[in-house]
Specification:
Radius of gyration: 27 Å
């Protein structure tokens, strides 16, 4: 019955007026039984999730998903591979899918957690700082090449001082996208301050 209702619901507006679709009266009780009876994601995902939840329930909620062997098969489903795929592809899942997984203890992979933590620890760069860095890259390019006709894909190596999360400083080499930055400044020149335009002009930028 549920499968038939899912099919009818999936026909949506295209089936209205021809006896198709699930009416609000029928959909309401179904949502009370299972809020995800007709999910927006593939039904194969929902089926494997139900299998994972069954595994979790039979284990009294004590499951080490991170340590689950990838070759694990349960109730005919490739459960181990599926869990690995969910943890690795966490950002691409819908919020409801993430909530369902979290409810049975499945979380995003450690590499994603580490990347997120690193991104949050990285100090925010203001637009003024980005302009200063772009100007420094432009000056470096002009000194070396003798002109400022920068190719669109060009990246200029630039030595910058980076502040760590604890306030410590370190020197790193970054490759600033100078060509893209210069094109972007030209596109938004009406929003640049007179001082910024003057600095660009000093380096030989004609449109400034």
């Amino acid at each position: 019955m549920t499968t038939n209702c899912r099919f009818a619901a999936g026909r949506g507006a295209g089936a209205r007026g021809r006896g198709g679709g699930v009416g609000a009266g029928a959909a309401g009780p179904l949502k009370e039984i299972d809020p995800f009876w007709c999910p927006t994601w593939p039904i194969t995902w929902q089926r494997t999730y139900a299998t994972a939840r069954q595994w979790w329930l039979e284990s009294d909620g004590r499951v080490d998903w991170a340590g689950l062997p990838e070759e694990t098969v349960f109730e005919g489903e490739q459960l181990g591979r599926w869990v690995v795929a969910q943890r690795a592809g966490w950002p691409g899942l819908e919020q409801d899918q993430q909530d369902l997984l979290t409810a049975i203890g499945i979380e995003e992979g450690p590499e994603l957690v580490a990347a997120k933590a690193a991104a949050e620890a990285k100090p925010k760069v203001s637009r003024a700082d980005r302009f200063t860095q772009g100007l420094a890259a432009l000056a470096s390019f002009a000194r070396r090449e003798g002109h400022v006709r920068v190719p669109r894909p060009h990246k200029e190596p630039l030595q910058v001082t980076m502040a760590g999360p604890g306030g410590e400083e370190s020197t790193e080499i970054v490759h600033a996208g100078l060509g893209a930055w210069l094109n972007n400044q030209k596109a938004r020149r009406a929003k640049l301050s007179p001082g910024q335009l003057a600095q660009l002009a000093e380096h030989g930028v004609e449109w400034a």
